[in-house]
Amino acid sequence: MMTIRKNNNQLELFEKDYSEFAKPILKWAGGKNQLIEDIDKVLPEKFRVGGYFTYIEPFVGSGALTFHLLKNYYSKIDKIVINDINPVLISIYKYIKEEPERLIKELRTLKEGYFTLSNEEKRKDFYLKKRSQFNSISSTTIEKAGLMIFLNKTCFNGLYRVNSKNEFNVPFGKYANPSIYDERVILANSKLLQKAIILNGDFEETYQYIGENTLFYFDPPYKPISQTSSFKSYSSNKFEDSEQIRLKKFCDKITSGKNYFILSNSDVKNLCPDDNFFDDLYKNYCIRRVLAKRSINSDSTQRGQISELLITNENHFSRW
C-alpha cells in the first residue's frame, strides 16, 4: 500500500491530484500515443456515453491507451485488466501501483549516478555496467524494474530488445539530457492503477476476467513489414503467423460472447500491396487503415508515415 511521507513538500505532492500527468513512463516500439485519436473514434458509443464497463488490454506494452482511458473514463471503468508476457515490464506496473515511492528512490539513485558523470564516454560505461547488471538479475526485483526504466530512457532509440538468450542488448543512446523519470507521472499512474488487475501471462488467460460490457484492446507484436522490424522485439518468444491466427480465433470467441474488441497491427501492404494476410484473416470484421509515423527504423531515411490497421467487431454491434 502507499505510505505518506513526512516531508511537507512531498506530502503536498502526494496529496495533490496529479492525474493530468498520467501517461506511459516507458518509450515503446509501436506505442499507441499517435493513434489515440483514431482509436477514440472507433470506441463503441456505449463505452463513451453509457454506464460502467470492463477494459482488458492483453498486450499492454507502455500502456498508452490504458492511461488515456483511465484519465478520461475513470468513473465509468468498473474493472481494468492489463497483461503482458514480459515479466519485468509487468513488475514495473506492480511497483508503480503498490510501491511508487520505492521505485522513485531506485530511479533517483540511477539518475544522480548518471548525471554526475561529466562526458559521454563515462556515461556510456555507466550504461553498459547497468545493462550487464540488469541481465544478471534473474528475478523481478524493484532493482531490475528501476534498471529497465533507466535503460529504456538512455539506450538507442528508447528500444527494448532482447537476444535469443533473453538478454537486453540495445546499445547506448548518446542523449545529452534524457528524462529518466518524472515523479508526478509515477504518482499519477499509481493512483489510476489502484483499480487495475495486473497479469503476466498468455493473452488468452485474460478471458476469465470478462464482465458485463467488456472492451478488449489488442496491440500484439506486429507482423514484420521490413527486414529491420525484428529490431523492436522485446521478447525471445516470437509472435509468428500461427500466433496471429490464434489471436484472431480469440477475437472470434470474444465476439461470440457479445463483447467488443479493437485490434491494431501492421499493414503488410506497405511492403507488398498484394499481401492479403490480415484482409483475409479478418474479412468478417471492420478493417481501417490509419496513418502512423515510423520512428524505430535504424535507418533514418526509412522513417516516415505508413499505414497501420485498426480492426474492430463493430459490424456485429447492431445485432446485439
Task: Indicate the topology.
Layout (H helix, E strand, L loop, with lengths): L7 H8 L20 H6 L3 H5 L3 E5 L6 H10 L3 E7 L3 H12 L1 H16 L4 H17 L5 H13 L28 H10 L3 E4 L14 E5 L22 H16 L3 E7 L10 H5 L4 E8 L11 E8 L8
Parallel strand pairs: 1-2, 1-4, 2-3, 4-5
Antiparallel strand pairs: 5-7, 6-7
Which key features would you list for this structure?
alpha/beta; Rossmann fold; 11 helices
Describe the structure.
The protein has helices spanning 8-15, 36-41, 45-49, 64-73, 87-98, 100-115, 120-136, 142-154, 183-192, 241-256, 277-281; strands spanning 53-57, 77-83, 196-199, 214-218, 260-266, 286-293, 305-312. The radius of gyration is 20 Å and the shape is globular. Mean pLDDT is 88; it is low at 1-14. Helix content is 37%, strand content 14%. The chain has a domain at 8-86 and 182-319: Rossmann fold. Helix 5 (87-98) crosses helix 9 (183-192). A 7-stranded mixed beta sheet has the order 3-2-1-4-5-7-6, sandwiched between helices. It contains 11 helices and 7 strands. The chain is an alpha/beta fold and 320 residues long. Strand 4 (214-218), helix 10 (241-256) and strand 5 form a beta-alpha-beta unit.
